[in-house]
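Changelog-linked ticket: adenosine-5'-triphosphate example.
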Amino acid sequence: MVDRHVKLKLESINRTYAQGAGELRILQGADLEILSGEIVALVAPSGAGKSTLLHVSGLLERADSGSVTICDVPTDDLSDRERTLVRRQHVGYIYQFHHLLPEFNATENVMMPQLIAGQADRVAKARGEELLSMMGLKDRGTHRPAQLSGGEQQRVAIARALANSPGLILADEPTGNLDPETSSVVFDLLADSIRNHDAAGLIATHNHDIAKMADRVLTLKDGKLVPFTF
Ligand SMILES: Nc1ncnc2c1ncn2[C@@H]1O[C@H](COP(=O)(O)OP(=O)(O)OP(=O)(O)O)[C@@H](O)[C@H]1O
């Protein structure tokens, strides 16, 4: 039997934002465990806190209280600098609007996280080309983002998120701006990459057809994560 590790563990996460004189309680005791090879979809109405949950999970934002453990690294007592290092090593983040660097071509965009992590140029380039090829973009490496279609740009963003072989992939509406057919292709590529690398995925989406392709579907209710029923 394959040994499955917990890649993301959230325990009693609370996150409140100030709203005028009052407060907006977004996460209230949210718990979650995602195992290697597992993909969890998060479906919830706009404003429910999906992005907040992803930001807290990816160490882009601190919870007010609670615990975040990523790939066996407890993160609660880490400095901002240490959190950045954990994020670079273990987390791949995919945004709805890919956030590719416009002045760099596709291969260079995929190389970027590897270069930041100290990888040699030659190795980063080979890995970048391999990942683009895996995403069906072998002949698009020299194209800049503006020279790629929306689906192609999103596949480059996925390749970039996978570049350092992170244990945890977080995706915020990764197919939000794509047509249904392209969405399904892009989700398949993302899901296969996560499963083949024994990583774990947490994917926020409004699209129920996409959510159904995940292993589990959760929603946010009263600030907690609970199973979603279609
Ligand atoms: N930095 C902030 N300061 C104050 N309020 C915030 C902040 N970030 C988010 N919020 C509020 O918290 C709530 C949850 O926001 P969040 O972006 O997590 O929702 P979401 O479920 O991802 O929504 P959407 O599906 O529209 O992207 C919203 O009402 C938002 O206005």
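Closing comment: Example verified and attached. The chain has a mean pLDDT of 93. The pocket of adenosine-5'-triphosphate is lined by residues 17, 24, 26, 44, 46-52 (CB under 6 Å).
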